[in-house]
Amino acid sequence: MTRITIKDLALEAGVSVSTVNRILGGDEGVKAATAQAVKDAANRLGYHGVRTIDHRISAQKPKFKFGFLLLQPTRTFYKMLGAALQAASAKVETHHIEPHIVFAEDLSPDIFAAKLLELGETCDAIGVVAPVHPQINRTIDTLTSNGTPIFALISQLSATGSFNYIGLDNWKVGRMSAWAFHKFSKAPGKIGILVGNHRFRCQEMNEAGFRSYFREFAPEFQLIESIPTFETRSVAEEVTERLLAQNPDLSGLFISGGGISGALAALRASGKSGLIDCVGYELMESTREGLLDGTLSMVIAHPLQRLAEMTIEAMTNAKLEGAASTVQTTILPFDIFTRENI
């Protein structure tokens, strides 16, 4: 076959030969749309220098490094969130996004704050899932005053600060969960509540919405005081076993935090699986199995792909707009899963 020439490429793309030469030479003055048209033409023709064109276009894209501080690396949900952020960064065509994802093994405030400061030294913006604590709040204030945009993911930060937030309306999550118990239950009964850690505002709001629904529509149900699982499987299993032993008449369990696999294990071991209405959080392997075998009645979940894409877009816009950027709250619709739609 005849070798494709620069003249052929220019003709196919509808540009001049000199424009193609400028792109191949790395001239940053060529419009992005024109460069993309030449790249598309090169792909259609099978031009031998298509990789060079792609490299030249990529080299001209604005580059941003975004840092993310997520919770423990052993938590399936946060591994899923990290993967979604990686994928969303790779999909961006107009900019080169380098995601730097760090998992906080230790959630003590001083270590968590130190990781945030470390990210602030090299990253253009930071996304974080963080508990509310004075030391962490002070660190975030320091970063924002230094010009680093901060985005709270999943759980909102301090109620008194102005921070970007991307996640669910957790009040609605709690009320939706309560509605499910109200409709699922054959009769009013006693409901246990597990939270991961009361310092996460998302879980506090989940519980507040949950209780508000019952006060308004179903006061005949008895809600037990919430029990923390400290975001760990073993603690969740232990406290669920104790809750079941102390409340043999328990009719429902709302799991609004980490350690759900431990709670499900305790339900199965007690023989209460499928006999107690149970609503959990996030769709992953353990909760999928719980829905399939009837241990879980319903799961409410973040739309992770959409959350990640909106996070990368919002962080990019914040850097492009600079001082003109405004603090935004982005509320996503949550997904609802039962055994019938997974």
Task: Describe this protein with a few key phrases.
Rossmann fold; 13 strands; 342 residues; alpha/beta; six-stranded parallel beta sheet; 3 domains; 434 Repressor (Amino-terminal Domain)
Number of helices: 13
Largest sheet: 7 strands, mixed
Distance N terminus to C terminus? 51 Å
Q: Into which percent range does the helicity of residues fall?
A: 40-55%
Instruction: State the shape.
Output: elongated
Report the β-strand fraction as a percent range.
15-25%
Quantity of strands, as a count? 13
| Overall pLDDT confidence | 93
N-to-C series of helices and strands = HHHHEHEHEHEEHEHEEHEHEHEHEE
- Identify the CATH class of the largest domain: Alpha Beta
Query: What is the subunit organization of this protein?
Result: single chain
The Cα radius of gyration reads: 25 Å
**Can you tell me the number of structural domains?**
3
Low-confidence stretches: none
What this model shows, in words?
By secondary structure, the chain is an alpha/beta fold. It folds into three domains: 55 residues, 434 Repressor (Amino-terminal Domain), CATH 1.10.260; 136 residues, 3-Layer(aba) Sandwich (Rossmann fold), CATH 3.40.50.2300; 132 residues, Response regulator (Rossmann fold). 49% of the residues lie in helices and 18% in strands. It has 13 helices and 13 strands. β9, α11 and β10 form a beta-alpha-beta unit. The chain is elongated, with a radius of gyration of 25 Å.
